[in-house]
């Protein structure tokens, strides 16, 4: 029994040492390892284990654990202040990990005993230890930042105690009792880890010197390897993990050619520049302004987080609600790279419908909001025009501007594309074929998609592979179109921006108009029998040619270069707004000065 006890205590001690070391000058290495390892373990080990034991319903527990703490924190923040609300999510994560450590202790007690099938199962014991160390390190880091080193050490002691309690459980309680609940607990731990990572994501300066960059990449690679190699087969999680990895590879190769072409063309568009004179922003009626806002915004390669300051710049320079809202809704819905991906995964007819519907939805919602806004709200820009902004357009050759634009676009699109591919791989691996047929037959799929899409941040490019998988699983094309229209255009940040600028009444009327239009477009697609040529290919493995493999390698090198330039954690802060983190707003200007260039290119 001394072997499992030693492993339990040593893994907590090592994790605590790594977490406390994160406070010193070499913290970027330790923090990067702890954060990336926590993400890799949550998505590569814990969630597959939960799915293997509880089935697809474990995804609901995972999603709830990832999202509900943020909603609770917002409510607590209104009543008790921001500090207490921030601590709530961390406490939930800690106690979920506490219960999970009891489960790990039970595993150590079972597999560390000589009586278990006549073997010590050293491989399983080491796997349990390897996945425990980064989790304890990450939780230690989080509590050090919140409460100091002493409080963090008490928390680590609690986790060690939980493991010791778990080791003793098999001697007094039949393991089957805990086995029934363990998959659900594991799913909750995975979701809460995602929440804590996003919530406590710390801003990070760019790495200095090639040595720091090499170490940063090496540590990130070591942590990420836990996603593919760190798991042990528990509750059938190994089989689920294998299917997810195969689907992820297949979808990545499917995505690579279209994404590479789209990024390159989007960079060309940005490098060429699109300067809009102030008079052009103000002239014309509401219909003309809505049309201009949607047409100008649709092809721009700008994410939902980047479009908010751009829309506010347009408003301050004299644009009316119709132009601002149309631009705000159309811009994140369909860039060039998204159109290319849609054509590749679902076929050009659906891609064309998506383009037209995105522009039309933005115009329709903008016109409705223009009518709903009061005169003072429609013209509140009259006294805060910004005439003094200097020209910050990038200098140099066209290639230099193109490379800068490509780096910018990759910086914002690539992390969300990875998220989308991982989500699509999970759905493809665990969702049974034709499992969405019942929802589609009853017409409920559009309602379900709307409830998920409206409040969420959904990147248009990253959602496309997932959309193809859902089509192959039986979701109706109309429901998929609804998700692709509403997801990128509407999220809590966008709704908050519109409420602040144009008031609650105009905002919710406009949001309702967008939902009604999306449903009408979805219903029309369903009754028209629109062909979705490539959807089936997303649901099964198939051979990939040299073009797909070459494009994937080029994108992998480009992402590595981007991470080399800014550091992995800074690169991943692009996910901050969508996941509820707090560092995102501070990172753009320090990493790529994203807002300044786009403000001038679009609104000069």
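Sequence proposed for the structure above (604 residues):
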């Amino acid at each position: 029994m001394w072997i499992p006890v030693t492993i339990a205590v040593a893994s907590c001690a090592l994790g605590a040492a790594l977490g406390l070391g994160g406070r010193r000058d070499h913290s970027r290495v330790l923090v990067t390892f702890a954060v990336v390892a926590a993400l890799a373990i949550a998505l590569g080990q814990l969630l597959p284990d939960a799915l293997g034991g509880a089935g697809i319903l474990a995804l609901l527990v995972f999603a709830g654990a990832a999202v509900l703490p943020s909603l609770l924190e917002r409510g607590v923040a209104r009543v008790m202040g921001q500090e207490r609300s921030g601590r709530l999510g961390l406490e939930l994560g800690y106690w979920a990990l506490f219960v999970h450590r009891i489960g790990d202790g039970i595993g150590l007690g079972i597999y560390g005993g000589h009586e278990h099938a006549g073997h010590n199962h050293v491989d399983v014991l080491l796997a349990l230890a390897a996945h425990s160390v980064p989790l304890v390190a990450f939780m230690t880091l989080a509590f050090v930042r919140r409460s100091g080193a002493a409080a963090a050490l008490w928390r680590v002691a609690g986790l060690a105690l939980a493991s010791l309690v778990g080791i003793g459980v098999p001697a007094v309680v039949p393991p089957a009792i805990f086995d029934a609940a363990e998959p659900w607990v594991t799913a909750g731990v995975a979701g809460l880890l995602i929440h804590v990572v996003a919530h406590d994501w710390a801003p990070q300066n760019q790495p200095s010197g090639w040595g720091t960059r090499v170490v940063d990449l090496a540590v990130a690679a070591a942590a990420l390897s836990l996603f593919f190699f760190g798991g042990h087969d528990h509750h059938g999680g190994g089989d689920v993990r294998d299917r997810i990895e195969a689907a992820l590879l297949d979808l990545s190769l499917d995505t690579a050619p279209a994404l590479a072409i789209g990024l390159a063309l989007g960079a060309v568009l940005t490098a060429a520049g699109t300067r809009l004179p102030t008079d052009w922003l103000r002239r014309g009626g509401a219909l003309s302004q809505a049309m201009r806002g949607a047409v100008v915004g649709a092809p721009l390669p700008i994410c939902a987080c980047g479009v908010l300051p751009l829309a506010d710049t347009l408003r301050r320079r004299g644009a009316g609600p119709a132009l601002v809202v149309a631009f705000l809704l159309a811009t994140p819905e369909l860039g060039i790279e998204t159109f290319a991906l849609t054509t590749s995964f679902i076929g050009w007819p659906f891609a064309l419908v998506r383009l037209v519907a995105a522009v039309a939805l933005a115009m329709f919602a903008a016109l409705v909001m223009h009518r709903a806004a009061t005169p003072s709200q429609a013209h509140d820009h009259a006294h805060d025009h910004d005439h003094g902004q200097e020209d910050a357009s990038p200098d140099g050759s066209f290639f230099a501007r193109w490379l800068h634009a490509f780096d910018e676009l990759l910086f914002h699109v690539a992390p969300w594309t990875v998220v989308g591919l991982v989500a699509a791989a999970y759905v493809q691996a665990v969702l049974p074929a034709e499992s969405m047929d019942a929802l589609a037959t009853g017409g409920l799929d559009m309602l379900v998609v709307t409830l998920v899409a409206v409040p969420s941040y959904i990147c248009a490019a990253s959602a496309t592979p997932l959309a193809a998988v859902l089509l192959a699983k039986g979701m109706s094309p109309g429901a998929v179109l609804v998700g692709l229209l509403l997801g990128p255009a509407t999220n809590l940040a966008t709704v908050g921006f519109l409420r602040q600028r144009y008031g609650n009444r105009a905002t919710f009327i406009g949001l309702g108009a967008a939902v009604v239009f999306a449903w009408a477009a979805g219903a029309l697609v369903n009754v028209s029998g629109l062909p979705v040529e490539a959807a089936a290919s997303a649901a099964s493995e198939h051979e990939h040619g040299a073009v797909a493999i070459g494009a994937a390698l080029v994108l992998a090198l480009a992402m590595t270069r981007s991470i080399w330039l800014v550091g992995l954690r800074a690169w991943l802060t692009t996910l901050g707004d969508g996941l509820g983190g707090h560092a995102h707003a501070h990172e753009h200007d320090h990493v790529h000065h994203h807002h300044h260039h786009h403000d001038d290119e679009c609104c000069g």
